[in-house]
Amino acid sequence: MTDGMLILLGISTAYVILFFCRCLLGWNDKTCSRAADSGAGIAQTTGSRQVQADIAQVWTNRAGTMAVLADGIGSANTGAVCAQIATDTILDRFEPYYELNDPVYFFKSAFWEANKRIQKTTGERRGGASVGAAFLNHSHLYYAVAGDVRIAILRGEEIIPLSKGQTIDVLAAQAYEDGRISRQDTLWSMEEKRVWNYLGQDGFREIEICDQPILLKRGDKVLLMSKGIFEEISWSETEDILIDSASLQELAERMIDAVEQKRNPQADNGSVILIQRLEA
After folding, report:
1. Angle between helices 103-122 and 78-94 (to 10 degrees)
2. 86, 118 in Cβ contact below 8 A?
3. For a Cys staple, 237 with which of 26, 61, 91, 233, CB 3.0–4.6 Å?
4. Domain limits of the chain?
């Protein structure tokens, strides 16, 4: 085993220990939100991969609830380490807040810091993470995405996709709208789903952020999922699962069951986070 791999293994072990310490000790008024009473549901599948490189966590403090889903990019443990760094960076910055007055600035600064931390850790090795984060207070939802993570709302019996993701097809569609490329070039690009922006890459670009905060209604369910989920089940299948009145944790697990029942031999890591607004 190379020195680089030993370093990454040591870092990943340290992050796992830190996570469990947080859950056991409960920093300040923040809670480890895998618990059923946290108003969140988290479930994962490794798909056909040997290593789970997704990190999905939810924390709640007086300011509200922050959910972060990071899909690691890189071989061996590199992707998992990058995903954990990204998640920890965002949640560590969120931890001391009693009120988050400017979520847009928070997301931009936290994502840029996570990008720098990942680059410093990986050095010359290729690694990074697609990351989606959602913040809910008593009335509104704010979100940010770097890479390929999907965020949506289930309102009543209808699912409403919110994020577009930062993939080549989305970039091409936006360039066409802006008049920068032809319709033919756009059509050629629509099947290309490679990520063009993610945390940890050289030349990291602006993240996708919601233009306006989204006013939440009672009963809204906010969904975050990585590509191991949205590439396997359709929006209509997701909608059918989420309209049930079961707990958020049970619904998240049902989504994983639906993915695994597809039995795709090429399935990627997949993670689901479900959250709802805090009651005033």
Report:
1. 150
2. yes
3. 233
4. 3-275
pLDDT tens digits along 223-270: 999 989 998 999 999 999 999 989 999 999 999 999 999 989 888 889
Closest CA to 68 of 78, 52, 77, 55: 55
pLDDT in tens, 159-217: 999 987 655 444 434 543 555 545 554 444 334 345 657 888 887 888 889 878 999 99
CA 20 to CA 25: how far, in whole Å?
8
* H-state helical runs in the chain: 3-25, 78-94, 103-122, 168-177, 183-189, 227-230, 235-242, 248-260
Distance CA 236, CA 155 (A): 14
pTM as predicted: 0.81
pLDDT at residue 279, as a whole number: 66
Which one of 3.60.40.10, 3.40.50.2000, 3.90.1150.10, 3.90.226.10 gives the CATH number of domain 3-275? 3.60.40.10
